[in-house]
């Protein structure tokens, strides 16, 4: 799975609270737009353990040209957020993913373990692993139960943010380091 995250040069989508990606899996490409802010969760879980947010999907192609994508609510939102600005690639997340379906009496979910590689241009700027559980049907009781089991296992800790947020931090850290490498050396003696 390869996710290419994009925005305008002035980050119009991010400034309005959204992130967007083109996901390539095999020969298909899917546009996904997600809200960056998350709703508070109910229950006894820490707020970073579960996230509920707006997510729209639609068909697309690999080009960063919404005019060439089929009509969908996700495309319409990207058009509204960007105005007339052109889109540009920010970074790519490459994932090796193992997926398992989980069924309970109160719902269904999909558990995925992702090995993530963050790429800016042609440079890998970082890697991390992430375990996600996403509801695929029913109510949130199954997710609450699974999160509780995982939370008490000491095998995992809640992520500090979404994959997009983690990748953005790795990208920004690399950009800061690259700028520092380009600075001229400071002379040891004046004059």
Structural summary, described in words:
The chain is α+β, with helices and mostly antiparallel strands. The chain is 25% helix and 40% strand. It has four helices and seven strands. The chain has helices at 12-15, 73-82, 141-153, 163-182; strands at residues 2-8, 18-25, 28-35, 55-59, 87-104, 107-120, 123-138. A seven-stranded antiparallel β-sheet has the order 4-3-2-1-5-6-7, with helices on both faces. Strand 2 and strand 3 (28-35) form a beta hairpin. The protein is globular.
Give a summary of the structure in a few sentences.
This protein has 191 residues and is an alpha+beta fold. 25% of the residues lie in helices and 40% in strands. The protein has four helices and seven strands; from the N terminus they run βαβββαβββαα.
